[in-house]
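FAQ

Q: What does a record look like?
A: Structure on top, sequence underneath. For example:
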């Protein structure tokens, strides 16, 4: 791989930035100052340093964001703030995008990555990766509703949702629930409760697969995910027919 590509992929800066760093003699390969931006390096074998610090090459990166309300799950928008506006400057050289969508008023676990293939895999309707939500729901959510979610709620457009797991945390005039679904239709959780004649008044995603939102993350903060974390996301899928 070319040295300038390696440095860009390692999120050091733009092509122009990294060429400048090389020109200034700030990049070394195996201890020798790199002279040419197009020199070939082997990312497995060569050690590249910037100002003496090892440059770590990562093909792709994955972040968990604790999304706040008021931001849309997109990379750009003319009128509304996007989740990318929440990222610190150092991430502007990462081509991050949200893998999946949360509504503007939904909070919680949003996955950001630059890995298109992975995003496609976990979002594909056929893969049925689970997502778990916490919600406040108007009115009493009761045991009979657990069975209805298990059987598959029919949405207003006639679509029968896959079986979902409803856990009642508080059954009252304002109920508190957790719901695990295995698909991601537009406004799905809200529409499922609307189909029962009630309304979600607060929604927060608390898990993707078996990976739970890190509740120590402040709203808008991100944290880098490890390979083990990523495996957990893919680890809970709908096993039905
Ligand atoms: N279901 C919804 O209704 N909204 C979300 O943001 C996510 C799931």
């Amino acid at each position: 791989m070319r040295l300038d590509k390696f440095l860009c992929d390692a999120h050091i800066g733009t092509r122009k930035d990294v060429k400048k760093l090389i020109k200034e003699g700030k990049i070394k390969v195996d201890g020798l100052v790199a002279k040419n931006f197009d020199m070939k390096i082997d990312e497995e074998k060569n050690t590249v340093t910037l100002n003496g610090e090892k440059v770590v090459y990562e093909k792709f990166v994955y972040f968990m964001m604790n999304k706040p309300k008021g931001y849309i799950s997109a990379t750009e928008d003319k009128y509304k703030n996007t989740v990318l506006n929440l990222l610190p400057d150092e991430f502007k050289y990462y081509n991050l995008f949200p893998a999946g969508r949360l509504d503007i008023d939904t909070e919680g676990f949003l996955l950001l990555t630059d890995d298109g293939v992975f995003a496609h895999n976990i979002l594909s309707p056929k893969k049925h990766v689970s997502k778990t939500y916490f919600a406040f729901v108007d009115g009493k959510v009761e045991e009979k509703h657990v069975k209805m979610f298990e059987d598959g709620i029919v949405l207003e457009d006639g679509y029968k949702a896959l079986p979902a797991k409803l856990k009642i945390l508080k059954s009252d005039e304002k109920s508190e629930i957790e719901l695990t679904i295995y698909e991601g239709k537009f406004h799905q959780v809200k529409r499922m409760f609307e189909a029962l004649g009630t309304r979600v008044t607060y929604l927060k995603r608390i898990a993707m697969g078996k990976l739970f939102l890190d509740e120590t993350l402040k709203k808008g903060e991100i944290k880098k995910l490890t390979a083990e974390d990523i495996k957990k996301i893919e680890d809970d899928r709908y096993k039905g027919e």
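Q: Is there anything notable about this one?
A: The chain has a mean pLDDT of 94.
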